[in-house]
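Batch manifest, entry 17 of 40.
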Amino acid sequence: MQNDGLDADDRIGLGLSYDTGTGWVLEGEVSDGTQGAGARVLATRTGGDGDTQYIGYTLEPGRDLDDVDLVGRDRGRVVVGGRRDLSSDLSIFGENTYDMFGQRDSLTSAYGVTYAANAQLTYTVAIELGQVQDGSDNDFDRRAYSFGTRYASHTLSAQARVEYRTENGTLSGDPLDNDTVLVAANLSYKLDDAQRIIAKAEALRSRSDETSFRDGDYTDVSIGYALRPVEDDRLNILARYRYLDDQIGQTLDGTDDTGPVQRSHVVSLDGSYDVDRFWTVNGKLGYRSAETAVDPADTFARNDAWLAVLGARYHLVHDWDILAEVRQLTLVDAGTQDRGALVAAFKQVHPNMQIGLGYNFSQFSDDLTDLVYDDQGVFLNLVAKF
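Output type: structure tokens
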């Protein structure tokens, strides 16, 4: 069916799984629908020593890749890989992916080693080698080297990764010579059964000739406090501080262009309360202290803002929820106010997962670092709890 500007996406399919009894498990799916045929075939072998090998093919109908236009027919992708335990604390893995996205063919190989220092701490070293060709304006090599670590205990879980990536060749007919360093980390510390401290950090440094990509640095750091009382879990509160220094620019929907750059400090308080078994009320109050510019070379100007959200959710039968919100965005320096509303319906598909479809009547989102007001319209939302 097709409704309210949504593309039709009717589909019918059939899937099966078969255990051969020899260590190999065969899985397969075929489907057809509005956006074309789809298929998935996977063969997985798990040995008695824990070693795993797999080979598969996937054809996703309607698939798209970021910044890549489909020219010709999508022929899917083939994946071959495996993992082997060399000892109780050392394992190796490898995977090769051949992607046939129209005229754009890419071959990516990833290899790595994981070392478990103890039951809580692991280290991983990986390398990724790739080549992209489409027979016309895109022909470049990609290499990435990464090191990661993970720690998990009863009260603390943390992980961090550093990656160095290079891309050399041509992109859209222009020379491509891009070097990127990425650092990412996140942490969750359990104060007690009701309280947690959560933190996240990402930093990126990109250097190129700016023919195909804008040079720039990107830093995003946040820390928050989450409260959900054990005795009365109807109340949920999240207080968070976030610092964003984006000198690359926000991506504009539907284009390859980049939007404004910013240096922002954002504080926010989110809360929800279950009034009874049917009704939940929620709210959010946030403040942004920011300097923004069209691009890094321009003069930065103040761009402070307040955001207020008030909503209610009604729990229907059969795991369905209906949500309605009213929102107000106040741009302090511009002296303007924008009000709007949002409605959505959510379906509980798993004890820890909801999927929802809704409509945003306002141009802005509830993310104060979103400086591009292009959010009006239909949206699909996935909510997961871990």
